[in-house]
Design goal:
By secondary structure, the protein is of the alpha+beta class. It is 11% helix and 25% strand. One of its GO terms (molecular function) is peptide-methionine (R)-S-oxide reductase activity.
Amino acid sequence: MGSQILKISPFASSSIFNASPFLRFQAKTVVTISKTQFRSNPLISSSGFVPSSDNKRGLRGGVVAMASATGGSVQKSEEEWRAILSPEQFRILRQKGTEYPGTGEYDKFYGEGIYQCAGCGTPLYKSTTKFNSGCGWPAFFEGLPGAINRTADPDGRRIEITCAACGGHLGHVFKGEGFPTPTDERHCVNSISLKFSPANS
């Protein structure tokens, strides 16, 4: 079987290239995928959304994988996630829990750098997109291109946001709340779902 070469350019915004040498390198990555290894997931549409009718109980104990902004994915069983995450990280990232408002370490933190997924290390947000919403959780007005998936909750009332690489639960996104941000969106993220990487590191 032959192979395909895909040129991945997830960082469409020119401003992202000022973030760090790591991100500049990621934007130029060329990924080779063997046709015999690549299998499409019928539960994930071309837009990256997972239908809300997906029965999450059916995934218990199995391997969960999602496409990332850099073309890679993180595949781990439930047992492997339990081994590398703290109980609270597992509860939130893998079981879609929520930390208490005002308790997370990044709620009122405004250092310069990149916020990564605490589960797999995928870059998710630039610190320049973080703002004080007063909600009790870290708030961002946009994520890095291709890094975050959106899925309607089963009740249809909220939109869940997850890491595109590992499927880890981040929180929810809200639109039209009137915050003076460029996107009029608020990504309400659990601090424990994030790991901060300073700009000078």
